[in-house]
Amino acid sequence: MSYNKNKISLALQNHSIDLLSRPLKPFSLASSSLEVVLRTEQEFIHQINNTDISTLYSWPNTVHEYFIQQTQLYSQKSALELDEQSLTYSELLYSVYCLTNHLIDKMQSNEIICQCVERSSEMIIGMLAILSSGAVYCPLSPMDPQERLKTLIQDTSPKTLLIHSFTWQTILMTYTSCNLIKIDSFIIFNYNDTICNIINSFCKVIFIG
């Protein structure tokens, strides 16, 4: 095979132009998500394989299914960033996995689970865990007046209510009798290095719900 300098230079030029043009739309596109294969090359590969990609990667139907799909693809990439806190997809999956199993042990199918949590990583963990467990997710705003929160809890009649340290006192003032789970404390007390390492290594074969 002979080396064709002109062909190689032209190919590199086309790749460079394609890569430099992509971040312009949108500006928030991560550099790690850029593909180095040109569209014409993708079409060529597709013709060779004669494979319908859409049948291999069907679009997920729910939020937590989409989360699992993203974890399979980007396990070590950042999934959640808030202030100075950052979690990768595998780290987030671990917390969701632990809380989901705990909820499944405490509930029945299609049971309503409320969550009263301020904007935080615990809010995302709680929401994904509730959805993954098969329960009905009912968010409560900690900014609502005490009487409104009390009424909403009475109307939905949840057996379980997820909270965190910042909303603990708020919910206690509603005098609810349902089971309270403080998400941040639960994650700390149930951390298991072995399970975490397994999820980090084999997150591509872990499915929730």
Model description:
It is elongated and about 65 Å long. It has 10 helices and 6 strands. α4 packs across α6 (121-133), α5 (89-106) crosses α6 and α5 (89-106) crosses α10 (193-202). The chain folds into 2 domains: 5-56, no CATH class; 63-205, Rossmann fold, CATH 3.40.50. Mean pLDDT is 75; it is low at 202-209. The protein is α/β, with parallel strands linked by helices and 209 residues long. It has helices at residues 5-21, 39-49, 53-56, 63-73, 89-106, 121-133, 146-156, 168-172, 183-189, 193-202, and strands spanning 78-82, 85-88, 112-116, 136-140, 160-163, 179-182. β1 and β2 (85-88) form a beta hairpin. It has a 4-stranded parallel sheet, with helices on both faces. A two-stranded antiparallel ribbon has the order 1-2.
Strand order of the largest sheet: 4-3-5-6
Low-confidence runs: 202-209
Helix residue percentage: 40-55%
SSE run: HHHHEEHEHEHEHEHH
Q: Main beta sheet: strand number and arrangement? A: 4 strands, parallel
* Gap from first CA to last CA: 53 Å
What is the count of distinct domains?
2
Helix count equals 10
- What is the highest CATH level, the class of the largest domain? Alpha Beta
- Helix/strand class: alpha/beta
Q: Output the CATH topology of the largest domain.
A: Rossmann fold
CATH architecture tag of the largest domain: 3-Layer(aba) Sandwich
Mean pLDDT: 75
Number of strands: 6
Rg from Cα: 23 Å
